[in-house]
Amino acid sequence: xxxxxxxxxxxxxxxxxxxLGYAVESEENIGPDGKRPERESxxxxxxxxxxxxxxxxxxxxxxAEARADAIRTLTQCELPNLLEExxxxxxxxxxxxxxxxxxxxxxxxxxxxxxLDFDDPDANDWMVDNQFTVVAGRINRRPDVVVFVNGLPxxxxxxxxxxxxxxxxxxxxxxxxxxxxxxxxxxxx
Length: 189
Prior knowledge:
Blueprint: H1 6-19, E1 23-26, H2 27-30, H3 48-58, H4 64-75, H5 82-95, E2 97-102, E3 108-113, E4 126-130, E5 134-136, E6 139-141, E7 145-149, E8 152-157, H6 169-182
Parallel strand pairs: 1-4
Antiparallel strand pairs: 2-3, 4-7, 5-6, 7-8
Helix pairs in contact: 3-4
């Protein structure tokens, strides 16, 4: 009996995401040395161009400097513990980012920059990338599938070949734990 390979599982998963309306990309296209690079280096995990376009589309009423402040708040690591940083980012994703800016009348105004559109999911930019390479120092890792929403990596999928007796749920879990230790930036968001 022939078993599915890990590549077969990955291909099926990417097809499933495509059927859901996600753009499907590969590292050879959008990686730093790809045909259409979407990040400057392998240590960068946020697709900044997608993030900036989404923030602009979701918050057209806010001035550019307010949107830029929100992106800085979202992309700067502020807490040393990965779990605490993830919770901080989660709150920003759910509640938006508080900003202050000068209105057209010159008055200091406060507002909130939305990162995700929960009311109209189609207004978001949905994308998956397979074999997303991340380099942190001398560590080079390539998670199987990374799910991006508005340029932010929100999920990491680790696949295992079903025919391999060592390919267990525990093995996949342990691989994700290794990624969290070795390439933590991928897990901030």
